[in-house]
User: Fold this.
Amino acid sequence: MRRRAAKRGQTGNALIEFAMSLLLLAMMFAGIFEIGYSFYAYGVLANAVRAGARYAALQPRGNAADPEAAKAVRNLVVYGDPAPDGRSQPIVAGLSTDHVELINDPASSTVSLRGFELDALFMKFKMDGRPTVTFPVTSARGESK
Amino acid sequence: MTLLIGLAGLAVDIGRMYVIRGELQSFTDAAALNAALAMDGSASGQARARTGAAQLAEGPHAMRWDMGTQTITHIETSFPADPNGRRLVRVTATEPAPIIFMRLFQPFSSSAVAAASVAARDGGSVRLIQ
Assistant:
């Protein structure tokens, strides 16, 4: 009899231990998910910014101050398409064209994200000035000089 | 527990390396183009090409690595010979990606992540070829 009672007491212990370790495990998995997702989203953003900077640098420099050309660059970064239709979704949730900063110099184009907050489940990561990509202007440079 | 840290290592450490490689690749692409623009076949052109490659890692609009936080410092510029008579420039960027979880399984605290790009200058035009 006594032995059975002791055994029963231990099964209770095991249940509490399991519950505690489950909590710990769940937290670890959530943390891994959060960090993994942030890296994934950052990679997507960095690629989009790169595409935008390259696209901007390939535009004729006469268009550098053209607001329509700048809009196309912003759309390319946010929607992956310079001329998106109304149904396009941003490549990362919460990203809008207001977050895309474009600087056209005579010899280069720079695209950065400003004031975007990456929402990664539990935490928000502020992206101010990163990613930043600059591409040199490679076309029609000889003519402008 | 070991398995869990291994999984965390895969997700975090390797994920971070891929992000860093992407950032370095964007940088070397732009840097190789910038270097190729400066080449004119002379030795001073090559010196300007080296400066041009490093230029994009400097200043307020510098391209950075490790989720845009670290300055790119290890930049190598070389000038491979081209059988087609174009002027080639190859830019390589190598940075030590920090290792957090995988340190449990191996002795290194960082792993070199590299990216390289080759740009060609053919007359006045410049493009990436690799």
